[in-house]
Amino acid sequence: MRIVVLLIGGVLGLAAGAVTALFAAGMFGAGAGFSDEINVNGWKSDWTIGSTAANPWTRARVARHGLLALTKEEAVYFTKGVDEDGQRLSEDCRYEVSGGDMPGLWWSVTLYDAQSYLPLNKDNAPSFDKTKAAATSDGSAWSFTVAADGPETGNWVSSRNAGTFDLMLRIYKPTPELIATPEDVLPAPVIKRLSCGGAA
Amino acid sequence: MRAFLTGLAAFAITFLIAHFVVLSALPGKIMSTVRGQMVERGMPVHAWAMSPRVTPESQPVVRPSPDLAYAICLIDLSNGPVELSVPAWPEYGSLSIFEADTDNVYAGSLDARAQGTPGIRRVIVALEGQDLYQYGEAEQVIVSKPEALALIRRLAPSQAAYEAAAALIPASRCAPL
């Protein structure tokens, strides 16, 4: 009897341990969600991404959703998968994303689907970056639309075929001030939901 | 009651073991799988290979940046150190090296505007214990396993910039010493 109980407990433990590890690594389930160690208005990051200091959960999650990520001295990565009202970002809705100059050499905002890939479409509008911001303004205040269909005017990032998605903000060569106090220094872009399902 | 506690203890112990064994093995397994896929697609070891421009149809790894031009060199240190040399770039660029377990153990700027960026960045990658005394001038990066990966990122948001980045590959080196 005792051996049977030991065996059942052991087998169940092995199975549960393996499944929870796969889930923690993001092998199934949606989105990147590296860590919320740093959270600036919903833009989440973890300064140990890519480094030897990363804990096993972060390292596994980065391997699955951000393989070949750089350490914070070279680049920092923020992700956000909800709008300002906390609603999951969805292809069915239109959003305006706005922000200011970012504390680093160069930056970009890119849209990824739940599997961490660019959505399959031919819109040629996967991201918005410092170069585009500088082309349409002085770079200190910018905005773009996220939607499945492009706006008549203005900058656009396509969510066509994205399903639920997240936005990733990359800042290359971040300033020391950003690394030291991200909550004080990062001008977190605002994701405002404009409409959903074709409603105005 | 005693049998139940015995089963619970077995569950807890094997749960922890399985959780951390799987969690620790995943990064290396994922890296190894990606490397295997690259080799299957014809990517050689010890040669810079320019990745196609990132599009929804062409995504070599998860979360690729569509604004960057990537070049990859698969490294195998089984037979000795490997030398990397990579020309600078007029805008943002970096040369980075990754361990088999995905850790980013080196990143050097390729941005010609940045102070201290050499015209050609030269790095020697080696395993712990491999003899490097005669390569004193180059930067040296020590990794723990023979299989490593080097990656060039260059800011190239246009087709013209991508082609300019690709044109630098013949002048780059990734080869055993």
Describe, in plain words, how this protein is organized in 3D.
The complex is a heterodimer of chains A (200) and B (177). With 200 residues, chain A is of the alpha+beta class. Chain A is built from five helices and ten strands. Chain A has helices at 2-24, 56-65, 130-136, 176-180, 182-185, and strands spanning 38-40, 43-45, 75-80, 93-100, 104-113, 127-129, 141-147, 156-158, 165-174, 190-196. The longest helix of chain A has 23 residues, at 2-24. Chain B has helices at residues 2-40, 159-166; strands at residues 49-50, 68-76, 82-87, 93-98, 104-109, 120-127, 139-143, 147-155, 173-176. The relative contact order of chain B is 0.19. Chain B has a single domain (49-176), classed as Immunoglobulin-like (Sandwich). The mean pLDDT of chain B is 92. Chain B has a five-stranded antiparallel β-sheet. With 177 residues, chain B is of the alpha+beta class. At the A-B interface, helix 1, helix 2, strand 5 and strand 9 of A face helix 1, strand 4, strand 5 and strand 8 of B.
What descriptors fit this protein?
heterodimer; A: alpha+beta; four-stranded antiparallel beta sheet; four-stranded mixed beta sheet; 5 helices; 24% helix; globular; B: 177 residues; alpha+beta; Immunoglobulin-like; five-stranded antiparallel beta sheet; 31% strand; DUF1254 (chain B); DUF1254 domain-containing protein (chain B); DUF1254_sf (chain B)
- What would you report as the Rg of chain A, rounded to the nearest angstrom? 19 Å
- Sequence of strands across the biggest β-sheet of chain B: 1-2-8-4-5
Tell me roughly what share of residues is in helical segments of chain A: 10-25%
Alpha-carbon distance between the two ends of chain B? 66 Å
Order of helices and strands of chain A: HEEHEEEEHEEEHHE
Helical fraction of chain B equals 25-40%
Oligomer: heterodimer
Number of domains of chain B: 1
- Coarse morphology of chain B: globular
Could you spell the SSE succession of chain B in H and E letters? HEEEEEEEEHE
Number of helices of chain B: 2
Q: What spatial order of strands do you see in the largest sheet of chain A? A: 3-9-5-6
CATH topology of chain B: Immunoglobulin-like
Structural class assignment of chain A? alpha+beta
